Amino acid sequence: MSVYKPKNSPFYQFDFWIRGSRFHGSTGAKNEREAKAVERVEKAKARKYVEDAGKAKTSLRLDDVNERFWQEVGQHHLGSDTTDRDLARLIEYFGPDKMLTDIHDDEVTKLVAWRRGHRVTRRKKVNGQWQQDLKAPLVAPATVNRSTTEVLKKLFTRAKAWGVQFDREPDWKKHWLNEPEEHHRELQQDELARFDATVREDYRDVLDFADASGVRLNECLLKWSEVNWDTKQIVKKGKGARTVTVRITRLIRSILWPLKGHHPESVFTYIAKRTRKDKGLVKGQRYPVTYNGLKTEWKRHRARAGVSNFRFHDKRHDFAMKLLRETKNLKLVQQALNHRNIKTTMRYATVLDDEVASGIEAMQEKREESRNLSRSASKKLA
Fold first, then answer.
1. Mind listing the pLDDT tens digit for each residue in 188-232?
2. Nearest residue to 86 via CA among 184, 155, 34, 137
3. Is 333 within 8 Å of 327 (Cβ atoms)?
4. For 285, what's the count of Cα atoms within 13 Å in the CB-facing half-sphere?
5. Is the pLDDT score of 374 beyond 80?
6. H/E element holding 251?
7. Which residue did the predictor score with more confidence, 307 or 241?
8. Which residues contact 136 (CB under 8 A, 6 or more apart)?
9. CA dihedral sign of residues 287, 229, 317, 341
10. Mean pLDDT, the chain, as a whole number?
């Protein structure tokens, strides 16, 4: 009998095999009739799972889907450590045995609500030990979208490429939180001076490069193999594995050229301030700048400079706005930022408001001058 009641449980259990796969668990029912009804539902779900798994040629357990996604895609992301953390968070919430095909709208709604209750990772020392600051702000809607909803959606998209068919795939638009309009922060002259005065010297070159190129944080981690002095270009993989091209201007050349010889592979390095045997660091030796290391040093640098509300990514915005104000050429800025669609670049068009106003005023003045001449001529004829 596939439905039975164990001695130590008031509930009936189900236990059956379909095409070599075993399915078992509690029915949550205390009488046999209700238990068999639950079993029929479980068998229907099991048949669907076996069919989908056969098409995908893989297990649809969330843990197994995560692992395959990681092997095929995730580990190759520029921010692979972040991808790994985001995937682990899904396992933390759903559990490793959750079937991807069993995740529907109501469960995604609960997932989003759970993630919204998390706080920004901010640690402080309590009794000599680092602990999460319980007064840190809640994570932003944009963080929820990109670290949770978007990651889960990518698993569904990848599974469909494997051949899985979803009868009730979540309506992702319903779960996307509204994000406040992005504020494009431009660096003021006094702030630039404070940043320059408080920079850690072994991080100065990479920060200067970010200012001069407008690239994203993870795109600052250059390899010498990506630098071509002959073509005067830096070519590397950027966001979404897309090719990013940076022109080696005179300023960028002056930043990079003196760094030759510091490290055989990495362009930007830092000097270890102390020996850390657990991390293989020796005080005074040079090591490649890492994503997390640059992110951490930027936060410290910003605090030393006393500049608030200016993220590392705002360096890119600052670069774009200043370039557009100088050239008044959106197409040129699009190419400099490696935007695929000029609509993305259009967000910076507000910096041309003064030029637009001046153009309108010049047009109106000429029109009014022409009108006055016409009126004067009419009066003479009269």
1. 899 999 999 999 999 999 999 999 999 999 999 999 999 999 999
2. 155
3. yes
4. 10
5. no
6. helix 250-256
7. 307
8. 119, 120, 121, 122
9. negative
10. 88
- The pLDDT tens digits of the residues spanning 35-47 come to 999 998 888 888 8
Residue 60 has phi, psi (to 5 degrees) of -105, 15
- Token couple for 264: 């055989």
Do strands 3-4 and 233-237 pair parallel, antiparallel, or not at all (unpaired)?
A: unpaired
DSSP one-letter string for 147-187: IIIHHHHHHHHHHHHHT---SS---HHHHPPP-PPPP----
Main-chain phi, psi angles of 121, to 5 degrees: -70, 110
Bridge partners (DSSP) of residue 286 are 271
Quickly list DSSP for 5-65. Answer: --TT-SS-EEEEEETTEEEEEE---SSHHHHHHHHHHHHHHHHHHHHHHHHHTS--BHHHH
Length of the chain equals 382
Mark 260-287 as b/e (b = at least 16 C-beta within 10 Å): eebbeebbbbbebeeeeeeeeeeeeeeb
Give pTM, 2 decimals.
0.61
State whether residue 263 is helix, strand or coil: coil
Task: Say which DSSP state 192 is in.
Answer: H
CB 70 within 8 A of CB 85: no
Q: Is the pLDDT of residue 125 over 80?
A: no
Q: How many Å apart are CA 213 and CA 160, to the nearest integer?
A: 38
Tokens of 239: 């966001």
